[in-house]
Amino acid sequence: MFRWAIIFAVVALIAALLGFGGVAGLSASLAKVFLLVAVVILVLGFFFGRGRRMP
User: Fold this and answer.
1) Largest CA distance in the chain
2) What count of other Cβ atoms lies within 10 Å of the Cβ of residue 13?
3) Which residues, 6 or more positions from 27, have their beta carbon under 8 angstroms from its beta carbon?
4) What region, left, alpha or beta, does residue 23 occupy, with left being phi > 0 and alpha being psi -120 to 50 degrees?
5) Are 39 and 5 in contact (CB under 8 A)?
6) pTM, two decimal places
7) Could you give the CA distance from residue 11 to residue 4 in angstroms, rounded to a whole number?
8) Residues 9-14: what's their mean pLDDT?
9) Phi and psi dihedrals of 54, rounded to 5?
10) Bigger pLDDT: 55 or 41?
11) Could you give the 3-state DSSP secondary structure of residue 33?
12) What are the pLDDT digits (tens) for 22-48?
């Protein structure tokens, strides 16, 4: 998920530099959504993940 967030952020930056405001805004929004989902999954995995249990 972090990979997709970075990809969309780079696409947004390139589109903004080239003057494509609509594409840049959409890509930035998608990057934010992917980053939020990735952070939520990371936190849930940290709290509820299966670690090694001591016998």
Assistant:
1) 60
2) 14
3) 8, 9, 11, 12, 15
4) alpha
5) no
6) 0.76
7) 10
8) 93
9) -80, 130
10) 41
11) helix
12) 999 999 999 999 999 999 999 998 888
